[in-house]
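hey
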C-alpha cells in the first residue's frame, strides 16, 4: 500500500502544484475566503464526498464514507493568508496587493485536496470515515474554534478517534523532513494590555504631577524578572513587550502610559499562573509609585498538545511511508501558536511540521514563515498528501 500510495500521489503532483499556485496568486485574509473556497470545491468535484460549507466562515467540510463500518479520522488544512507584501519574485506570486501566503497555507490546502483524491480512490478499503477540514481564519481569527462550534467534529456522525494536521516550514527543517513530538508542540499566545494612570503636568515640575512613565518602565523590567524568578525554566514563559506609548512632546508629562505585550506559555497551568502574576505585578508596581493601572489579557490560542500515543503513531507512519531518514523528532516545543489546538483539546491527535525549504537554500538561514520572502518547495506537495492519507488509512485500520 505505501508504494502504491506514494506513486499515486506523485502522479498528481502537477495538479497539486497547479492548485497551490492558483491559491497563492489570489490570497485571502481572515474568515471569508470565497475565491479559495471555490477553488477547493472545484478540486473536490466528482469525488464521493459529502460536502458542506460554513455558515459563519468560508470553510469546506468533506466527509468520505468508507466501504466498511468503523470510526472517523479528521484531517485538517488551513487556507488563509497574511497581510504581507510578497517579495519572492516567483512567477506565481500574489496578485493581491499587501496579501501573501507567507505561511504556506496554500500548500496545506492543496495537500489536503490531494489526500481527498487518494483516499477516495481507496474508499472501498476504508473501515470508517474521513473528515476533511478545510479551515479559514487560522491567522488570529480562531477559525478552528468556529468550525468546531458549527459541528465539524460531528460531521461524520460521531466524534473522530484521531485528528491530524500538517504545517510546512520554509526554513529550520530540511526539505521533505517531517517532525513532531509528544505533549506540547506549540505555545499558547495571549496579549497583555496595560495602562498606567498618572497625572500630567509640566516637565520642569514633575513634583507637581504624577509621572506614569517611570512606573511603566519599571513594569517592563519587573515583568522580565518575574519570568526568570517565578517560573520553572523547564515549563517556560516568554513575555515580550512589543508596544510602548506615552506622551507627545518632550516638555509635557502625560496622564497615561500604555504598553502591550505578547505572552507565550507551554502548559495550561503555567498559562493561568503567568496571567495572574503579571496582572498582580502591574498593580503592585503602580501602587508603589502612587499610581493606578488597568491590566487585562486578551486570550489567544491555547497550548497545542499532541497526544503522546498519536505522536508516536505519526512517527511510525511517516517512517513506514517515506523511510527512516524522513523523520526528525522535534526536540522542544515551538514558540509559535496554532488554532489546531482547539481540535486537539477535543480529539487525541498530532500536529506535524513538514520542511519545505527550497533546494539550494540553507534551512538555518532561509526566510522563515511570515516573511515577505518566505518560499516553499512544491516538491513536498505529493509527500504531504500521501502522509495525510496514510495517517487516516493506518488509524482507521487500527479500529
Amino acid at each position: 500500500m505505501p508504494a502504491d500510495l506514494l506513486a499515486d500521489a506523485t502522479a498528481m503532483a502537477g495538479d497539486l502544484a497547479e492548485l497551490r499556485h492558483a491559491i497563492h496568486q489570489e490570497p485571502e485574509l481572515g474568515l471569508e475566503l470565497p475565491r479559495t473556497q471555490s477553488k477547493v470545491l472545484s478540486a473536490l468535484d466528482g469525488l464521493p464526498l459529502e460536502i458542506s460549507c460554513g455558515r459563519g466562515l468560508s470553510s469546506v467540510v468533506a466527509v468520505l464514507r468508507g466501504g466498511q463500518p468503523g470510526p472517523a479520522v479528521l484531517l485538517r488544512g488551513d487556507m488563509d493568508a497574511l497581510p504581507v507584501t510578497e517579495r519572492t519574485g516567483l512567477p506565481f506570486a500574489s496578485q493581491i496587493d499587501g496579501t501573501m501566503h507567507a505561511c504556506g497555507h496554500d500548500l496545506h490546502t492543496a495537500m489536503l485536496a490531494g489526500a481527498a483524491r487518494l483516499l477516495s480512490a481507496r474508499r472501498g478499503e476504508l473501515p470508517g470515515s474521513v473528515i476533511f477540514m478545510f479551515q479559514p481564519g487560522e491567522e488570529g481569527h480562531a477559525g478552528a474554534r468556529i468550525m468546531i462550534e458549527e459541528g465539524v467534529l460531528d460531521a461524520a456522525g460521531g466524534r473522530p478517534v484521531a485528528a491530524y494536521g500538517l504545517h510546512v516550514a520554509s526554513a529550520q527543517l530540511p526539505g521533505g523532513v517531517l517532525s513532531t513530538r509528544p505533549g506540547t508542540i506549540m505555545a499558547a499566545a495571549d496579549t497583555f494590555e496595560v495602562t498606567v494612570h498618572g497625572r500630567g503636568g509640566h516637565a520642569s515640575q514633575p513634583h507637581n504631577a504624577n509621572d506614569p512613565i517611570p512606573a511603566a518602565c519599571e513594569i517592563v523590567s519587573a515583568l522580565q524578572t518575574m519570568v526568570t524568578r517565578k517560573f520553572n525554566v523547564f515549563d517556560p514563559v516568554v513575555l515580550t513587550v512589543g508596544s510602548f506609548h506615552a506622551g507627545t512632546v518632550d516638555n509635557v508629562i502625560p496622564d497615561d502610559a500604555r504598553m502591550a505585550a505578547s505572552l507565550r506559555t507551554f502548559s495550561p497551568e503555567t498559562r493561568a499562573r503567568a496571567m495572574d502574576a503579571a496582572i498582580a505585578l502591574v498593580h503592585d508596581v503602580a501602587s508603589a509609585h502612587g499610581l493606578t493601572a488597568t491590566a487585562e489579557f486578551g486570550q489567544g490560542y491555547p497550548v497545542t498538545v499532541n497526544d503522546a500515543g498519536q505522536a508516536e503513531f505519526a512517527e511510525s507512519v511517516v517512517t513506514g511511508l517515506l523511510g527512516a531518514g524522513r523523520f526528525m523528532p522535534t526536540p522542544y516545543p515551538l514558540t509559535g501558536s496554532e488554532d489546531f489546538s482547539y481540535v486537539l483539546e477535543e480529539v487525541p491527535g498530532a500536529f506535524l511540521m513538514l520542511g519545505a525549504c527550497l533546494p539550494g537554500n540553507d534551512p538555518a538561514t532561509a526566510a522563515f514563515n511570515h516573511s515577505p520572502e518566505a518560499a516553499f518547495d512544491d516538491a513536498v506537495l505529493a509527500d504531504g498528501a500521501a502522509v495525510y492519507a496514510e495517517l487516516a488509512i493506518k488509524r482507521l485500520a487500527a479500529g
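The chain has ten helices and 15 strands. Residues 268-288 form the longest helix (21 residues).
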